[in-house]
Specification:
Blueprint lengths: L1 H24 L9 H5 L13 E4 L3 E4 L4 H7 L11 H10 L5 H14 L4 H9 L6 H11 L5 H9 L6 H27 L12 H9 L5 H11 L8 H10 L5 H12 L7 H15 L7 H13 L17 H13 L4 H20 L10 H10 L8 H22 L12 H10 L1
Helix pairs in contact: 4-5, 4-19, 5-9, 6-7, 6-9, 7-9, 7-13, 8-9, 9-10, 9-19, 10-11, 11-16, 11-19, 12-13, 12-19, 13-19, 14-18, 15-17, 16-18
The structure holds carboxymethyldethia coenzyme *A (CMX).
The site of carboxymethyldethia coenzyme *A has 22 residues, from loops.
Length: 432
């Protein structure tokens, strides 16, 4: 596989940089930790390293140094397609290079070979109560496949630290290939009377759309969606959890399943379901009437006054409108400008930030990725919003799993930050 050769060369070139930093500058400070950070979720503490993506508070995400528009422009696309192959994006995340068309096609073919989901995974899913949350099903299905881990088998034979990224890569490619199939299966089992559509010869994003049973341009949307949701540097809860679990030399199945459980929280990935649930709540309250700006203002205040957050707004790092929001908004302007819920989402963009500013709590009043993603799904008939985070998870797998390969390649150790007691912090503060 050409990808593996490219990756091997990149890893060889990267290792001396990490070794040098550790050996020559191990004691050099990269930041300090305040009491507020120790108590407040380690916000802004610089203690993770990744080269796969970087999140600037004002500019937003860059994948391997490239903004979203640059990424979308430079990745290869199928003939006549609007958005690139997701597989090519995986190549970019893993190697740092935009693939050629040939390299992207090779990866499309490789993932197709690997996408056969073991039959027992479907048995596990079918044994679960049908009203289990789709994220519970998704995480369980990933965990169930752990018995197939190539990394685990390699560990049992005696893992060589220098080459441990290779069995990790095997697991990562297997998982990336299979998760869209699992996601579509969960969707159709739960919401489409348990009728299923066999896989096609299409690429990952388009095949997902096909297996969901949703027509063009949903294939284009899902290529875009998976790329946009792939990575957001290392500190977000799903990426950090995956990295943390992997640092114990747990394999990619254990690690990703854990990461998906973090994504399932309403302050993280579940927010994209919450946005649609919240908007439906507005409609219900108004007896089905399209809300006006004044209605929305009242509902936003009502939500805040009841102690809840406005889903899809705010961010731990970003301090401007999320470019992933903007990219999806562009998709809406091209494909569904007159969609009624899109109009409501657009109105929210005018209504929410000034209210959050007036309330004065949120550090970032602007929308994040989740404010815009659900409306597009709804438009194409995927109205079962508790499924939305599963699709986020399929996309997020690309980034967090690429990181696992690099974690092993660079020999990052088990993660183990230090805790203090409240009394210790009080003593530190008292000393001044
Ligand atoms: N609505 C209401 N209040 C908000 C808010 C929002 N959208 N965003 C932040 N706040 C509040 C916080 O709850 C916090 O209140 P308290 O002081 O009472 O605890 C205060 O403002 C300060 O928070 P912050 O420093 O601005 O934000 P955090 O880094 O603590 O949290 C996030 C970030 C995303 C969890 C938060 O903005 C939020 O809850 N947003 C709504 C949920 C959401 O959209 N999550 C998805 C994020 C993207 C993703 O991961 O998918």
């Amino acid at each position: 596989m050409k990808l593996k050769q490219t990756l091997a060369a990149k890893i060889e070139a990267a290792r001396p940089r990490t070794t040098r930093l550790l050996k020559e500058f191990g004691g050099h400070k990269v930041g300090e930790v305040t009491v507020a950070q120790a108590i407040g979720g380690a916000r802004g503490v610089k203690c993770l390293v990744t080269d796969i993506s970087y999140l600037d508070p004002f500019e937003g995400i860059r994948f391997r140094g490239h903004t979203i528009p640059e990424t979308l422009k430079n990745l290869p696309k199928a003939d006549g397609a609007e958005f690139p192959f997701v597989e090519g994006h995986l190549h970019l995340l893993l190697t740092g290079d935009f693939p050629t068309m040939e390299e992207a096609q090779e990866l499309v073919a490789e993932l197709k070979k690997r996408r056969q989901v073991p039959a027992y995974v479907f048995d596990v899913l079918r044994a679960m109560p049908r009203d289990s949350h789709p994220m519970t099903m998704f995480s369980t299905a990933i965990l169930a496949m752990q018995r197939d881990s190539v990394f685990k088998a390699a560990y049992e034979k005696g893992l060589d630290k220098m080459t441990s990224w290779e069995p990790m890569l095997e697991d990562v490619l297997d998982i990336v290939a299979r998760v869209p199939v699992i996601a579509a299966y969960i969707y159709r089992m739960k919401y489409k009377a348990d009728t299923h559509i066999p896989a096609s010869e299409l690429d990952l994003g388009a095949n997902f759309a096909h297996m969901m049973g949703v027509a063009h341009p949903y294939d284009e949307l899902m290529r875009l969606y998976f790329i946009l949701h792939s990575d957001h540097e290392s500190g977000n809860a799903s990426a950090h959890t995956t990295h943390l679990v992997g640092s114990t030399l747990s394999d990619a199945y254990y690690s990703l399943s854990a990461g998906m459980n973090a994504l399932a929280g309403p302050l993280h990935g579940l927010a994209n379901q919450e946005v649609l649930r919240w908007i439906q709540g507005v409609y219900d309250k108004l007896g089905g009437k399209v809300p006006s700006k004044e209605d929305l203002k009242a509902f936003v205040w009502e939500t805040l006054n009841s102690g809840q957050v406005i889903p899809g707004y705010g961010h731990a790092v970003l301090r401007k409108t999320d470019p992933r929001y903007e990219e999806q908004r562009n998709f809406c302007l091209t494909h569904l400008p007159n969609d009624e819920i899109f109009q409501v989402v657009s109105m929210l963009y005018d209504v929410v930030p000034p209210i959050l500013e007036e309330q004065g709590k949120a550090k970032n009043p602007w929308p994040n990725v989740d404010a815009q993603s659900g409306v597009i799904q709804w438009h194409y008939g995927v109205t079962e919003y508790d499924f939305y985070t599963v699709m986020f998870g399929v996309g997020r797998a690309l980034g967090v799993l690429s990181n696992l390969v690099w974690d092993r390649a660079l020999g990052y150790p088990i993660e183990r930050p230090k805790s203090l007691t409240t009394k210790m912090i009080e003593d530190i503060v008292a000393k001044g």
